[in-house]
Amino acid sequence: MEFLTEFGLFIAKTVTLVVALIVVISVIMSAAQKEKDDHGGDGELRVRKLNEKYRKLKDALQEKLRSDAEHKIFEKARKKAEKAKAKAAKAKRKAGDAEEEAKPKVYVLDFDGDIKASDTDSLRRSITAVLSVAEPQTDEVVIRLESGGGLVHSYGLAAAQLDRIRAKGIKLTACVDKVAASGGYMMACVADRIVASPFAILGSIGVVAQLPNFHRFLKKNDVDFEVLTAGEHKRTMTIFGENTEKGRAKFLEDLEDTHVLFKEYVGERRPGLDMAAVANGDIWFGRRALEVNLIDEIKTSDEFLIEACDRADVISVSYQRKRTLPEKLGLATSAALEHTVWRVLSAFRNQKIQ
């Protein structure tokens, strides 16, 4: 029995040591990653031609549908066409003809927004790369945008990144498949054209702020909390102290001014909007959003890009930072937890339906 007790203590100490080492290593790796980010980032620019992606999907399906005899005929015709194309190109070079005019390009960027608009850093790097090569006369940028909004200053910066594209005279289209609300719509409105799926959520042109207050709880338990400031409006609202009507009025004044700035920003970029009707914080689904001019067309991003493949080289551009081990572990845990929660909710829903 004494042996088991000592062995258990040994195991506990070993586990504690291992956990401590993992924490230390995680902190060191995170610090190293932050230093890399501060000095230009440890990531890579990924470029993929979507024309090839959609063509391969079509070819794969067609191949499955062909019989063996049809496949032989197809392969024979394909090889013949490739030889003819190569022969024509060779003859053209021999004759000294000018190179065929390059097709216009459509650069596709993605933004998946959380409350802090964390994707902004990747977006700005991708935009910087695209602007270094895009031709204003022929090329176009498409932003596939998904966001329910978040912090004003964070989404203000994200929208300003898209303004850089417009400032260069390059056509910008925003595609919204699910949601572009509040800060998300602040970004979408920068585009020359907004395309959304039938049930995408648009709008929410408003500002909200909420915070708990524990003053009465602290007072009930004889706990004093003092807020010391230099400057009349340095702290208008507090979580632990007693809020005053004067402070509350100033906070609401700032909130209203932020809403005014939001409306002005949207109105400058979509002058056809009836701001009094759409800037009340309400949301509209795709078809209803079209009726009030929040968007310009009902179409999914897939439809838009497949059609673009017929007239241009469609190129996906994304900057992806290499994730640290703690981040990978965190993402894996988060994904597993999310999957479990959704399974439980789905089971509960199915049980209720039955």
Key phrases:
transmembrane helix; disordered C terminus; three-stranded mixed sheet; S49_SppA_C; 2-enoyl-CoA Hydratase, Chain A, domain 1; 15% strand; alpha/beta; 354 residues; membrane; 54% helix; seven-stranded mixed sheet
Per-chain topology:
Layout: H1 2-38, E1 43-49, H2 50-65, H3 68-94, E2 105-112, H4 120-131, E3 140-146, H5 152-167, E4 171-176, E5 179-181, H6 183-188, E6 193-196, E7 201-203, H7 215-220, H8 245-269, H9 275-278, E8 283-285, H10 286-291, E9 297-298, H11 301-308, E10 313-321, H12 325-353
Parallel strand pairs: 2-3, 2-10, 3-4, 4-6, 5-7, 6-9
Antiparallel strand pairs: 1-10, 7-8
Structure, explained:
This is Protease SohB. It is found in: Cell membrane. Residues 47-101 form a coiled coil. Keywords: Cell membrane, Coiled coil, Hydrolase, Membrane, Protease, Serine protease, Transmembrane, Transmembrane helix. This protein has helices spanning 2-38, 50-65, 68-94, 120-131, 152-167, 183-188, 215-220, 245-269, 275-278, 286-291, 301-308, 325-353; strands at 43-49, 105-112, 140-146, 171-176, 179-181, 193-196, 201-203, 283-285, 297-298, 313-321. It is an alpha/beta fold and 354 residues long. The chain has 2 domains: 37-93 and 105-201 and 282-345, 2-enoyl-CoA Hydratase, Chain A, domain 1 (Alpha-Beta Complex); 205-275, no CATH class. The strands form 2 sheets. It has a 7-stranded mixed beta sheet, with helices on both faces. Strands 5-7-8 form a 3-stranded mixed beta sheet. Helix 4 (120-131) runs parallel beside helix 5. Mean pLDDT is 82; it is low at 350-354.
